[in-house]
C-alpha cells in the first residue's frame, strides 16, 4: 500500500549544499505524511473491526454512559456530562464558574472542562476491590528486584538508590512490614473516608461517620470532643505523610489501636515518632513513585476500596463556590485543583466507587437510586474488559488473574512472623498487630471469606500505581490435608 520513494541522489550529498538539503526535507516530509496516513487508515480499519465484532459490548457501554450522564445531571450540582463515544465523556462546569485556583507550575487557572475515559476508569477502580494496598514482605520477595530497588525507594534515610546491604534495609523496614496483607478485600461493608476540609464544620455528620464499620482519616486530623459532632470519634485508620509526623503524638493519644499507614517514605522523623507510640504502623503500597504521588485524598480512597464494599466520603472540598482551601482544625492552607478534583470525585460517584457527602448534599433525602447499581456496573465492567482484550489482542482470559504479570508463591510454613521486631521500644511492645494479622479466618465477614476462597487465597498488588496490567500476585498454598 505504501511505496517508499527512492532517494534521487545515490547516497552522496556532494555539489551544492542548499538544494539537496531542501529536497531531502521535502522528501522526508512526504514520506512522513504517507507514513502517518498509513497508520491512521490502519487504526481506522482496526477500530471498524472492533466496532463490528464487539457490538454488544459497545451497546452495553453506551447504555452505561447514558446512565452516568443522568447521574451527573442529578447529583453534580451544576456539572454536566457530554458523551463523546461508548468510553469517552467530558464533564463541564457551568459557564461563569469561578475558576480562581491558579496552577503555579503551568501558570493557568483551572479549565472548566475535563475529559475522561470511563472504560479505563471503571477498570482501574474496580480492580482496587481485589487489591492489597499495604506493603508486605511477600510482595518484596515476589517482585523482581523488590528488595534491591523497590524497598530502597521507600526508605528516605538510606541515602542510596539500592539496598546493596539487604540486612540494613530489612532492619529499617522490619517494624513496618507484615509477612502478608493484614487487611482483606471486602473486610468491611461500610467505610467512611474523612478528609480535612473546613466544610465539615458546616454540617454535623459525626454520628453518621461513626456508624460505619471503619473510619479512615488523614494526617493531623484531630478527633476529640471539640469536633465530635462534625467529624465523629471513631478511629481505625490514618494515612500520614512526612509533614504530619511531627505533630502526631498528641493527636494519637488515647487511640492506641488506630492503624497508621505511611503514604510514601519512611524516614528518621517517622522512625522516632513510631518508637514513641504503640499504634500498628504499615507502609502504603500502591504509591506512584517518581511521577510524584497524587493527593492524599485519592490514596485514602484506594485504601478504603481495598477493604470496604461501600465508601462514603466526608470532608472533601467538592461543593460549588470554592474560595479557598480550608481545614476544619486550622487556618487555610495551600490546596490543589479544586475543580479538577470535584469533577473526578463526581465521576467516581457516578461509577459507584464512592458516595459523596458535603454541606450542599446534606439536606437532600439519602437516595442512591440515580447512581448506576452494582449489577449495571458489573455488566459495564465486563464489557470494558472484553473490549480491552479485543483491542490488545489478548482474547480469552477473562478470569480474575488476567492482569497478573508476576507470580509469587508462599507455602504454609514460610509465612514468617507477624509485624514487630524483638528490639522494639517498651511502648511498642503493646502494639496490637495481632488484632489484624492473626485474625482467624472464621472471624472474617462472609463476603471476605467468599472472596478469599474464590481467589484461592491469592493476594494481589499493583506494581506501579495506575497501570492496569502489571499486578504482582502471590499464591498462598493452603495447609495440606485440611
Ligand atoms: C549491613 O548492615 C548491617 C546492619 O546495619 C551491618 O551490621 C553490616 O555490617 C552491613 N554490612 C556491610 C557489608 O556493610
Ligand atoms: C481538640 O483538638 C484541638 C486541636 O488539636 C485542640 O485545640 C482542642 O483543645 C482539643 N479539644 C479537646 C476537648 O481536647
Ligand atoms: C487488641 O485487639 C483485640 C481485638 O480487637 C482486643 O480485644 C484487645 O483488647 C486489644 N489489645 C490491646 C492491648 O489493646
Ligand atoms: C475480583 O474478585 C472477584 C471474586 O471475589 C472476581 O469475581 C472478579 O473478577 C475480580 N475482579 C477483578 C477486576 O479482577
TrEMBL record:
Look up and give the membrane topology term: Single-pass type II membrane protein
Which keywords describe this protein according to UniProt? Glycoprotein, Glycosyltransferase, Golgi apparatus, Membrane, Signal-anchor, Transferase, Transmembrane, Transmembrane helix
Which portions of this protein are annotated as coiled-coil regions? none
For this protein, the parts annotated as crossing the membrane are 21-39
One GO term describing the cellular component: Golgi membrane
Q: Name one GO molecular function term.
A: sialyltransferase activity
GO BP field: pollen germination; pollen tube growth
User: Does the keyword section mention Membrane?
Assistant: yes
What is the annotated localization of this protein? Golgi apparatus membrane
Stored InterPro entries = Glyco_trans_29, GT29-like_sf, SIA1/STLP5
Q: Which family does it belong to?
A: Belongs to the glycosyltransferase 29 family.
Any idea what this protein is called?
Transferase
- Species source reads Lithospermum erythrorhizon
Taxonomic lineage: Eukaryota, Viridiplantae, Streptophyta, Embryophyta, Tracheophyta
